[in-house]
DNA sequence: GGAACTCCTTGACGTAGGTCAAGTTTGCGC
DNA sequence: GCGCAAACTTGACCTACGTCAAGGAGTTCC
C-alpha cells in the first residue's frame, strides 16, 4: 500500500483528486520491479499500460533504423511513461530501460480508462503533463539546431544543478556519458572533449566518472546562451 | 455559422461529440481573420485561447535568443494551435504567423474550460492530439540528429507527397525555402544545394520557386532511409 | 582481489555543412 | 508594366564535429 500510495499521491496526474479518490485509484495499481539494465518495454511490444515511476531512474530512448540510439529523456520518481501507447493503443516505437534498480506502478488500460471516465480531473492533469513534455522536446529540438555542443553541455549541467535543489553544485550524471551524448545530439568523444575544456577553464571539476562539481555557475550560464 | 460548423465538425478534438453537442460548442466560437504575413500571436503575448484553423496555412516557430527562427511546424485546416498556453496559462514562447490569408476559430479560456467540464470527451481527444504532436516532434528530433540533410530533405518531400493524396507527385512547398531550411535544421544555402543535387540526379524537378515534381519516388524513399 | 569487461579519453584526420559574399531571379506593390 | 526588395542560387572558404583507432581507468563478477 505504501507504494501505491506514493505513486498516487505524488504524481501530478492524480493531483486533482481528493484523498478518498486517490485511495480508490490506488487499488488498481500493480507493482513492477526492474533491475538496472533491464528493459520495461522495447519497440513493438504490445503493451498498453500506463507506468508511473515509484523509485529509481530509467531512460526512454528511440532506436533508429540503423540501430543508433537516441535518448529522448530520463524519468525518475513521479514521472509517467507510456501515455502515448496507452492513449493511441499503438505499439511503442521507443524503449524504456532501467538505469538503476527501479520500482514502477502499473495501470492496465481497462482500469485506467474506467478511472478516467469516473474522474475527468485525471485527463486534465494528463493534458498538463503532456503539454509540458511537448514544450520540453521542442526546447531540446531548438537547442540542438541552434547551439553548439558547448552550449548544450552547459545547459544540460545547469539543468541537473537546478534539479538537485539545495545550492550544492555537485551533480551526479544520470547516465553513462555515451548516453548523455546521444541525448545532447552529439557523440561520446565530443562530449568528453567539451567537458575536458570546461574543466581546463576552471568552470567545472570532474570527480570520478559520474560526478561533476560546478565551480563557476555564471560562466556556465554565459556559455549556455546562444552565441 | 458555416465557419463555426466547419471548425467544430472537422476538428479531431470535437469528434467525440454528438451533432447536437457540436452545435452547442459552435456557439462559443469567435472568428478571426489574418492576412498573409500577419502574426496571430507573438512570444510573450498574453493570449490564453485555443485556435482552430478554418482555412489557410500558418507556421508555428520558435525564436531563439539571438533572433534565429526555428520553424516547429506548419498548420492547416483542422489543426489546433495554442493548447499549451491555453492549458498552462503561460504566455507562449513561440510565434504563430499566417503563411497565407487564413481564417481561424477562437475559443477563449473561460468558454472552453466550461465546455470541457460539460463534455469530458473533449479532453480525451485533446490528449490524443497532443500525444500525436509529441510523437511527431520526437521523430523530427531523431531525424535531425541521426540523418544527414539529404535524407531529411527526401523525407520532407515524401511527407508532402503523401499529404497531397491522389498520386499526383507534384508538391507545393508550404513556405519559403528559408523557412523550410530551419524546419529541417539546416540553412537555405544547404537546402538549395541538396535540392539542386536531387534535381541533377533526376529524382525531382524544380518548377518555379514553389513547386517540385517528384520523378522518382523510390529513389527518394531510399535516400530518406538512414544510411 | 584479479581478470575482463565496458566506459572513457585523447589523438589524428576527413568532411558535411555552416558562413560570407556576390550574382540572379522572382514576385509584389505601385 | 516597372522597379525594388526579398528570395534564391552558386561559389569559395573554413571550422566544428564526427569517425576511426589506440591507450588508460573504473566496474563488475567470479
From TrEMBL, chains A, B:
PROSITE patterns from the UniProt entry: CNMP_BINDING_3 (PS50042), HTH_CRP_2 (PS51063)
GO cellular component: cytosol
Annotated Cyclic nucleotide-binding domain residues: 13-133
Positions of the HTH crp-type domain: 147-218
Matching InterPro entries: cNMP-bd_dom (IPR000595), cNMP-bd_dom_sf (IPR018490), Env_Response_Regulators (IPR050397), HTH_CRP (IPR012318), RmlC-like_jellyroll (IPR014710), WH-like_DNA-bd_sf (IPR036388), WH_DNA-bd_sf (IPR036390)
Keywords: DNA-binding, Transcription, Transcription regulation
Keyword DNA-binding: yes
Coiled coil spans: none
Entry keyword annotation includes DNA-binding: yes
SMART domains: cNMP, HTH_CRP
Protein's recorded name: Crp/Fnr family transcriptional regulator
Organism this protein belongs to: Nesterenkonia salmonea
Lineage: Bacteria, Bacillati, Actinomycetota, Actinomycetes, Micrococcales
